[in-house]
Amino acid sequence: MNISKDDIKIIAEQSQLILSESELEDAIEDLEDMLEGMSKLSKLDVDNVEPTIQVLPIMDMFREDEIDSSLDRETILRNAPQATDDSFIVPKVVE
Prior knowledge:
By secondary structure, the chain is mainly alpha-helical. The protein has helices at residues 5-14, 21-42, 73-78. It is flat.
């Protein structure tokens, strides 16, 4: 499949990426390689292959919930760099 610079520019714009000319060229090569690999996969004969969702023989790993004691609030807050009487004080991360 032939991928043009315009195709990559559209993808970059939709992804909110700013690419230099050399990055555009690299992206064209990378995308062509990926599509070539996908076309090879689509040619595989998988008619007699049973579908699977897990390649390892892992069974459901459930366990019973167990009630256990927890630390009291004062002990936890004592280890905090900053705290009030009942909560942690953390820096504001969203404006």
